[in-house]
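Weekly puzzle thread! Below is a chain. First person to post its structure in token form gets bragging rights.
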Amino acid sequence: MGLDKIGRSQGPFDKVFYLGYKKSDSENTANADGSLDVPVWLRGRGEQKIFLFIGTFGISYELELILEAAKRFSKSGRNDICFILAGAGEKSDVVIQKAADLQNVVLPGWIGEKEINALLGRAYAGLISYAKGAPQGLPNKPFEYLSAGLPLINSLEGEMAELVNRYRLGFNYLPGDIEGLCQCIERLASDSSLYEEMSKNASEFFKEYGDADKIYDEYATHIEKIVGQSKKDVTEGNYSG
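Winning reply:
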């Protein structure tokens, strides 16, 4: 996609490096539900499938659509499904208002690393709920979810949607499509075999393409290779810059 924008063909030193995510080294404490290490707002939800959003409550995100989906699942009696939206921002008041009567929605507010790790360890899937036209290609949020083996439910189009499809990392839906979002959630929550497959794919994809430590080591090696070749070209008189 980058090559298309600058109008040239791929060269020998062109390579894609994703933003990735640095996985925490701290122990994940979310498995012992009800222990003192688990945040209060996460206790008692051990049997629920948690669909998770972590991020800024900004205009780029369709948080209202997530809350509408939560409302529909609540009305249908799907008590096994829970939505946790962790964060704060300009949409906080709207989110709080719309979630007020929904027992299947948890709003922990802005949280720190320990709570994030607890959520990632307990969540069932990660929500990438961008509004139409949001200026994002491949943000780091998907890699945060993938680091915990969470399948993705994604509304970003373009390269992100292609990766979800190609590697079977979850499901895509179109921005603003409440029926599509609910179908993605329903399918993932109701098919345990499919969920296990996609969770495994998520973990494997992260190890190969999303681990920041691995990515930036490879990036540094790649830059050194380019610099080394440039010096060689200058020495041999092949430099045309």
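Puzzle host: Confirmed. Bonus trivia for everyone else. Residues 34 and 43 are 5 Å apart (CA to CA).
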